[in-house]
Structure formats: structure tokens, C-alpha cells
Amino acid sequence: MAFISAGEDILARDLWPQGSGVLLQDAHLDAHTVSTGRIVPSELDELADWMFVEVGSDGRRGKVYVKGGGAEEEDSSELVLRVQGIVHEANLTLTGDWDRTEDNAKKAVQRLSLVSGGCSVAFEPQCAALTSIREMVGLMLGISSSSRRPRSKAIVLRRRVFTKVADGATEVGPSVVETGDDPSGVLHDMSSRWRIVSRLRCGIQDEEGDILHLNPLLIRPGDLVDVSVTVAVILKKTPFGRKYEVVFEPCTIVRLWSAGSMKILLSPRESRETPASSVLKPKGKMGEGFCFRGTRGDKTSSGSQFSA
Hints:
- By secondary structure, the protein is of the alpha+beta class.
- It folds into two domains: 12-161 and 202-307, no CATH class; 162-195, no CATH class.
- The chain is 15% helix and 29% strand.
- It has five helices and 15 strands.
- It has helices at residues 44-50, 120-141, 186-189, 259-265, 268-273, and strands at 51-55, 61-66, 77-78, 80-91, 109-115, 144-145, 155-160, 163-164, 194-195, 201-205, 211-213, 224-238, 241-257, 291-293, 305-307.
- The strands form three sheets. Strands 1, 2, 3, 4, 5, 6, 7, 10, 11, 12 and 13 form an eleven-stranded mixed β-sheet that branches. The chain has a two-stranded antiparallel ribbon with strand order 8-9. A two-stranded antiparallel ribbon has the order 14-15.
- 33% of the residues are buried.
């Protein structure tokens, strides 16, 4: 996991009111205890030495990786960012914005839009970091972006719903669609051509720092969430040459605080009356990512844990 800083001495997540942006499981981490390889560089020259882009054999899609180095991280690994924000809009159903036609399967996405909720000091450094990553991808590929610079101060995350199954392909994983997800059978009928192979994972943090599974439909506008994000690169051929688009894809979403709680925490009066250091204390299991209690569909044990 890589964190975004808001300066040399503080992580952006630590600037949310009263420590509300800090996941209890890794509350022991700060700008001084996180290894430098897990903090997104703020300068472009340092960013160039930190990340690289690898394009797939089809030349259409790539991913962003973090370079290995040092005793702690010898091997390169896919970049996974942690971002926090107030939910503005969300479409997190299993099929996202799919219109239930096969022609639309290649365009269907799940989408999550995050805003500052008035806490720009914590949010804007994250926007700046994502912009720098987007620009660095273009510099590394030597081509221009196909998308305009975002006008609004929002972080838009989106994730493809379907994976195309080529003729005779064996590398595409099995469908994760369950019977209750597909009463009409339409997803089953097209699974030999388009398939849902993974689910967006959502959770809620309880008072003890455990993360419990949460139905994605319960992520609502106004909630403060912590999201793990990978970085995909889409390459396109246009009449003006090759273009690229950077897509920030959500992997796991954890609701830290509900919309009602954040309305109170973000109010000027509450911010004045409660010192930040008095709200959250480090609890729960230490982890680099999100450590859930229990697994999806596990009815016999609630103590097993896994990390994102």
C-alpha cells in the first residue's frame, strides 16, 4: 500500500477532522514510520524513479508498478494507493451502469466519486498526487492524454464490470455471479463471452478496529471512506495518434464514518471544541492493507482474516 503525503511531516489522511481519516488497524503508521517506498513522491523527478508503466502484450492496457529497491522491498509490485474522501456519488451494484445488453458490457463500470466535504487540506494533496501520476504516465509513454484535466475537485474512481472472454481463453477466472445475483440468467448466458470475475469488496470499521463486510449498496453520499486503488492505463488509437487514459480503479472500500457522523465532525463548532488527539486510539490488528474479519459466505467462522 502507498500513502499520499501532505508535506514532509504528515500524511494527507491525518488531516481529516479529529483523526477521522485514519484506519484504526494502521493508526500506528504516520509520515515518520511509513517507509519512504510506501509514500507517493511529491516531485516529478522522484516520481519517475519510484514508478513505471508496463503495457500488456495487446498494447491496449497497462498497469502502474512501484520499483523495487532496498532490503524491505526487493521486487517491483503493482501500485496500490490508499485514498480517503467524502462520497459524492456511488454506483456500486454488481453490474454497475450496465444496461443489460451484451453490446454495452464492454462499457459497463462501477463508479465512486469522492469530494473534500469542506476539508480541502486533507483532500487536495490527494488530487495533486493523482494528477502527478497521470502526467508521469504520459511522460513515460511519450504520448498525450485522451482525457481533459478534471475541472472539479473530485476523485473519480471507476472499475470495469465485465472481462471479455476470448475464444479458447483459459486465463480468465471463473464467474463470481451467484444465483441470487442473476435471477433472469442473462449473466450466465453471456458468461462465455463476457464475465464478472471479481467483486468490489466493501467493509465498515467498528469501534474496536475490526472491518466487517458491508453490502456495497450501503455506501452512501456523505460517508467518509478509505479506498484501496490500483492504476490502469488505457491506450487508444485516434485520428490524431495514440492517446492514453489513466483510470483509478477501486479495489476495497471501507466506510470509516457515516454521513451523519461526518456532518458533525466537519461542523466548525465540533472542530473547535474537540482536540484531534482525543478521538481515535490505535487498536486492532496491524496491517499494511485492510484486514477483514470473516470471509464472504463464511457461516462457520468469524475469526479468519485476510488482507487487501
